[in-house]
Amino acid sequence: MKQHLLATAALVATLAATTAQAQSAQTQSAATETGGEDSPIGEIVVTAQKRSENVQNVPIAISAFTATSLRERSVTSVSSLSALAPNVNLDGGTPFSGSSAVLSATIRGIGSDDFAFNIDPGVGIYLDGVYLARTVGANQDLPDVERVEVLKGPQGTLFGRNTIGGAISIVTHDPGKEFKGSFDVTTGSYNLVKVRATVDVPLSDSLFSSLTAASLNRQGFLKRIPFPDQRAGNSDPFTRFANAGYASASRESGDASVSLRGKLKWDNGGAVTATLSADYTHQDSSGQATKLLGVYPSIPGPFAGTANLPGTAFDPTASTGFLFAGLYNFCIGSTPAQIAARNAQALCGPRGTQFNPRYQLPGLASVNVDANPLNDRLPWDGRFLLSDPDLSYATGPSFNQLTAWGLGGTVQAEVSPDLTVKSITAYRNTRWKAGVDADGSPLSFLELTFTQNQWQFSQELQLLGKAFDSKLNYVLGAYYFKEKGNLHDYVNFAEGLLQVDGPNSFDTENWAAFGQIDFRPSDLLGFTVGGRYTRERKLFIGGQQDLNGGNYKLFGCAAGDGTIAPFGNFPLAPPVGAGGPPCFAALSFPTAANPVQIYVPGENRKTFSDFSPKVGMQLHPTRDVMVYGSWSRGYKTGGWTTRLTNPQGQVAPDFNEERASTFEAGIKSSLLDRHLQLNLSAFTTAYQGVQLNIQIGTSPTIANAGDARIKGFEVEMVAAPVRGLTINAALGHIDARYTALQPAALVNASPIPGIQAGIFVGAPLPKTANWKINVSPRYEYGLGNGGSIVLIGDWTHTTEVWNDVARAVLLRRPTNDIVNASIAYNAPDERWSLTAGGTNLTATRFLTSGNLNLADGAAFGTFNRPREWYLRFGMTF
């Protein structure tokens, strides 16, 4: 395979040297719109350095995509860009988020595969210059996009916190000065109906407006089917447990959304321009497709063993008892005597506690061995596994309800020909609910629902200037950011043997000052120096609790007189006159106000500060060739681990920031009279304090668990060898491996034979392919009537990816090839067009995310979309 990849890489590089371009794999597919016949590969103007520049003059590895390129390749969301940019992985959805509106972004091995409020992204998403703080809603729809810029490597100097892996900047359509518009409607697989329209309406000689509206409806591709056993009806329905919502669906991964965006721009040709914007998105659909992949009911654990501590059901050796899956099977299939022999009467007894009587349920003990066959329950085993990736026996929650809106204002004032002041003010608000049935069965064995509410305010001031006949360009700025919100987790394990109810609230405030100077003293030589100082304050209140009170039942705390004893027999709360400690204190529960709360009560505070510098040098041997080198740093803020299921005493577990330092060297070139462009970059990154998702029991926790070294290269090309033909190509190689692991990572470091490959020094980082290749030809044939036929193909080859930190074998994404194609007819003057296309034509299926929860005996994941077709009609006016 490696020889095959090297041969392919050599072939692509040869193509680049003779017929290709340096821009992003898809960036310039429609570049003829700016270049003309004599200059077939046109320019793309980006704002990666806070000022408008030809992307070929920016000494940063950038993949930029024009509106035409995105439309022709049916790219409709940020995650759809994943195949087109080398060393970039963008997935719609994270493990157990239940929503494809959540973006999992990794660039050059650095990112985040989670949605929780306590975990900040490693790749910053910007919408018209405004930072989107949450991954929820970051997988933006792109109905009116003007371009998308993918910046690789730490962007801390100009973009700030949480851009340690890179940044993705989305620039939407600005109002035009003439009345015009566009409209398209698409139909396709799974009853797809997508409608988009944009109209520009001048209101006066100096005031212009635009309005974009879009709607999407599509049936889910994963179908739920009934389980063929009448005992399925004896399981407790998910409506009996605490959840964020109780909507279900017959199909998962459906779409139902509407979005609006409006802009007003004032420009009288003078020194001041102002743009006001507003956007609104609403989604109300089924949840993300989630598939049960494996069951593990027989792994030994500490519950109800034969070597228990006296008076308890706890085996400290974790060798003779069960984990949650095995405990469930033991409870329903054991006689009262067998249960009593292991002190498991409380564990197998009524579920819930007196503190939340609404969620109390009958016990599970002996239901399959008593005299009543009508109450028999299904055991947890492999009967629920289905080989078809698009079928499931799930019956639980499946919903995605997102409402997001924002207001923004950008004012730009030209103080002098050499000095401009720019202000970007924005407020954004999201309300989200999601639910997923991850167990793929009629049992409530692993069901997760969430609510998240968030608002943010940001203000950025920029001073953009030039001096010395434009030889020196500078950006100076100040930034303020405020965010508040809450996340409430509800997770039910093993028919309620563990019931997580986790309310959390967050408050973040950030201040920063930044600057960058680009000085080009001669035509040959240029220098860059910049830096950003950031100070951040975080507040957090956690309220995680177990509604089943499982630890009390494990240690025999149902009753007692309060006397201190070696083990067990402590009361849940001390009776009047008791002389010993209450049970909640003996077991390190943190508060008497709520004995089932496991998280430390009260407000937790952390303060972070960082200086992210950048230095660089550029050589310009010719007008169309630039060689550059740079060193830059970035950081990702820290926080607290919140998903815990054991009492935390009086200490809130936290984690610190990540840091990355990157050396990068590259070449950007436009050759053969713009029939060929070629960009190459090579990099090495020292990645410190990596925030790893560590699975501790049922809990996915976060810790600074290691360091890594990341190195690789990228080649991005476009060629126009003959009239009408454009060949886009990209090649990325990355080697991202741990160089050190802290004790916190050791829980995932020991591989379980046949289940986990584990992590260790030298193991690869997750969500990072060793090789990625994309080749995309576009051919346009002119017709006699002035119209044209456009043929487009996409081939993306990606080597294997480990989807989780512990490298679960079932979750591994194998080497795969994805092929897309389309054919379009463009009418004369491009007044209308008709396009027929297909995605994933070879029906290649692989997992885009997943989780292995051995404590609950389940592995689950989400597959990529199957083969689909579409037919699109578009028109302009």
From TrEMBL:
Record PROSITE patterns: TONB_DEPENDENT_REC_3
Q: Where is the TonB-dependent receptor plug domain?
A: 55-167
Name of the protein in question: TonB-dependent receptor
Q: Respond yes or no to whether keyword Lipid metabolism is given for this record.
A: no
- Pinpoint the TonB-dependent receptor-like beta-barrel domain residues: 370-841
The signal peptide annotation in the UniProt record is 1-22
Keyword Transmembrane in the entry? The reply is yes
Which positions, given as ranges, span the membrane?
none
| GO BP term (any one) | iron ion transport
Topology relative to the lipid bilayer, per the entry, is: Multi-pass membrane protein
Q: Which UniProt keywords apply?
A: Cell outer membrane, Ion transport, Iron, Iron transport, Membrane, Receptor, Signal, TonB box, Transmembrane, Transmembrane beta strand, Transport
| Primary residence | membrane
Q: Which GO terms describe its cellular component?
A: cell outer membrane
Q: Which family does it belong to?
A: Belongs to the TonB-dependent receptor family.
Tell me the compartments it is located in: Cell outer membrane
